[in-house]
Amino acid sequence: MYSVRDYLGDDHTRCDDLFALAEKQVADGEWDKARASHDQFIQAMERHFTMEEVVLFPAFEQATGSEMGPTAVMRHEHVQMRQLFDAMEQSLQHKGVDDYLGNSETLLILMRQHNAKEEQILYPMIDRMLGAQLPSLLQQMESAGGQ
Prior knowledge:
Elements: H1 4-27, H2 31-64, H3 70-93, H4 97-129, H5 134-145
Helix pairs in contact: 1-2, 1-4, 2-3, 2-5, 3-4
């Protein structure tokens, strides 16, 4: 059976690949390509956040009876990442290579830490706690993510 850890872990990889491409294109001064790749990256990240925030986290919180704990931390980190997305967008509009790459480096560190916590702690916990609900949850995440 496909797990939340597998499904969203694969999605992390897809987002990371889009991020690396946008970062490389900015570094190379390929602004038109960078714009398209950056936009794809942001869309992929927002899709990922939506699947978690609309479907997965509420199901976990209902099962645990708490909105505090790991999901609260993950939501807070999503806010921090969205702030960096905005800063990167501003840098992209002004073709500010150093600003974009500085913000992307900060984002990379945050994403690595965030993804590790999800993949090593939260997702396995969800897979154990909500095992019987996984097929439904995965389907709901697909629908919420818009793909």
